[in-house]
Amino acid sequence: MEIRIIQNKRDHKAALLEIERLWDVPDKSPEAERLCVLALLVEDYEKTNFPIDDPDPIELLEHVMESRGLTRKDFESAIGRRGEPVKS
Fold it and tell me: How much is the pTM?
């Protein structure tokens, strides 16, 4: 595969396949440099074509708490009880 700007889904898929093929190459080899360049090109293409918005911080915290079975009470030692000023 020739290294070039990724312009469409076909280029993207080809780059991902080449990255997979190169994944375990020795460090500091020409193939490792090729892998790095391809990864940067894929990253740029994905940021442009598949942007991911930052999560709402409260929703993220609630999700993490729920997935780990935590409650507000589990954080009282760090953030204080409801209605109390935050510790600094």
Answer: 0.63
